[in-house]
Specification:
7 helices; single chain; mainly alpha; 3% strand; globular; 62% helix; two-stranded antiparallel sheet
Length: 135
């Protein structure tokens, strides 16, 4: 179960409006994080031939209804939420954190962690940030 703002996003898999809203949010987040198209595709778990899919999402079309994609988006939005809570007075740091080398990840950037480890990399980021917020 993936939670987004306290709601199980998997219960709304077929809600076009919900998937449209998620597409807008994740595309805006990717713009804030200044990710390349290739990085965006990797973070969403899409293959390199899916560039037109990103274009559709940018134009406001809904995310696909597959569970993996929606789970990834839920984790990405949770990472963003954690960063905003950790750095409430420094929005720039919250947005650049994903691209900054991190000793906790053997000096890989969080984006590189997800690209290298896939879904497990997303879970690593969530766990790391959850722990950081709990300190």
């Amino acid at each position: 179960m993936s939670l987004l703002n306290g709601t199980d996003i998997t219960t709304d898999l077929h809600s076009k409006e919900r998937r449209q809203g998620l597409a807008r949010m994740v595309m805006q987040l990717f713009a804030h994080w200044r990710l390349s198209n290739e990085e965006q595709l990797d973070l969403l778990g899409l293959d390199a031939g899916s560039r037109t899919t990103l274009t559709r999402y940018r134009k406001g079309q809904p995310l696909g209804s597959n569970r993996d994609l929606l789970e990834r988006v839920g984790h990405l939005l949770s990472v963003h939420k954690s960063l905003r809570l950790l750095f409430p007075r420094n929005r720039d740091l919250a947005y650049t954190w994903m691209r900054a080398p991190n000793r906790a990840f053997d000096n890989l950037t969080p984006v590189q962690v997800v690209r290298q480890y896939g879904f497990a990399g997303l879970l690593m980021l969530r766990s790391y940030l959850d722990e950081a917020r709990g300190r």
